[in-house]
What we know:
single chain, alpha+beta, 3 domains, 17 helices, 12 strands, 47% helix, elongated, transmembrane, Spore germination protein
Amino acid sequence: xxxxxxxxxxxxxxxxxxxxxxxxxxxxxxxxxxxxxxxxxxxxxxxxxxxxxxxxxxxxxxxxxxxxxxxxxxxxxxxxxxxxxxxxxxxxxxxxxxxxxxxxxxxxxxxxxxxxxxxxxxxxxxxxxxxxxxxxxxxxxxxxxxxxxxxxxxxxxxxxxxxxxxxxxxxxxxxxxxxxxxxxxxxxxxxxxxxxxxxxxxxxxxxxxxxxxxxxxxxxxxxxxxxxxxxxxxxxxxxxxxxxxxxxxxxxxxxxxxxxxxxxxxxxxxxxxxxxxxxxxxxxxxxxxxxxxxxxxxxxxxxxxxxxxxxxxxxxxxxxxxxxxxxxxxxxxxxxxxxxxxxxxxxxxxxxxxxxxxxxxxxxxxxxxxxxxxxxxxxxxxxxxxxxxxxxxxxxxxxxxxxxxxxxxxxxxxxxxxxxxxxxxxxxxxxxxxxxxxxxxxxxxxxxxxxxxxxxxxxxxxxxxxxxxxxxxxxxxxxxxxxxxxxxxxxxxxxxxx
Length: 498
């Protein structure tokens, strides 16, 4: 390292050396056999750690009471040791529920997982009494269901695994346990169905998760940003959901699913751009209705990214495109507006986004009131004050409503962002700017990959069979193969006996 670099970063080498020394010392301590003194040193300054001691029985225990269940603690600890004689202690500890701890690493992890660590005559044992508090299973607030199941994931990974196991009762459903977070040590489970999921995809996903180096990961949406193919893209490359039926469907389709402790959502891979416009409810109603709804979402996508931009382009550069009767109406509507159409549209779009965020952050009842009353009052006041035109209010409101039609919130947020890009291009270059912006979007999408597979599958590369479950929701008898994007070794999906 040069002298200049050392001068610009004083003390950095010493700090890293100290940190490395502490890590080596910590690692050496964790490899030792667990004793009461060593474990108390490891958990020093932990005021919530409870230490109970029975000198007459030479028994000590360490545990966190807020991680233990009262009934489990009474059954495994209080009742067995309440009236036991000192000479019977070793016989009790030889039972199967009392597992020997061979090193401080396993003992400390057991305590952090909610177990009680028992110390008796130089030996250490772990007994599970864990019952962490978690909320009850309820319907997802971001992905409401009309006809389908109403159970959603919660923040406990074990409960989420049980919900998935109840839907896929097969020994071929595999779960690989991993950990992320140098400090948090968060449990992550990689799920796949053996014989349906591509082995290369499984190994690739496992490799990416194992390579993550970060202190704390709070949610699956954070983990997605650390392992996806293109972290700087505005488009989501892995599909996240809080619905158990959607995850079961992804697994059955040959995809890989990742669930994380502390996160009420799971994500699947590989995913394509068009999957974010599909909903589980499409399969719970007649295929014609599901097809119509899905096509409506693609129309909403076109409206939400182009409607306001087209208004700005036409009213700024291309008056000849407007019918004569409509032109008179637009001219009268904009006669009192002192701003160019671009500034006018940006003002209203930003106002809509402010109302949307305010409604999302406030309590439910107040948020609905803010969204409805605020939109009506501000829109009407802006028109009367001459800050905007009636036609633009209709265009902006239509774009906002169309964005809510898209079932995936993360995709809806991405589309809201690129809408501003199209708006700026329309204000600067007119229709040519809109076409150029759309071309840039398609070029960007064509270069994206999800778990090394094309993001625009089944359009690029083209696979007409997959269109039956992408652009339309064909009858189940027509959808006989799993998606080609998964590269599954077992393509056959549906077999209807005649």
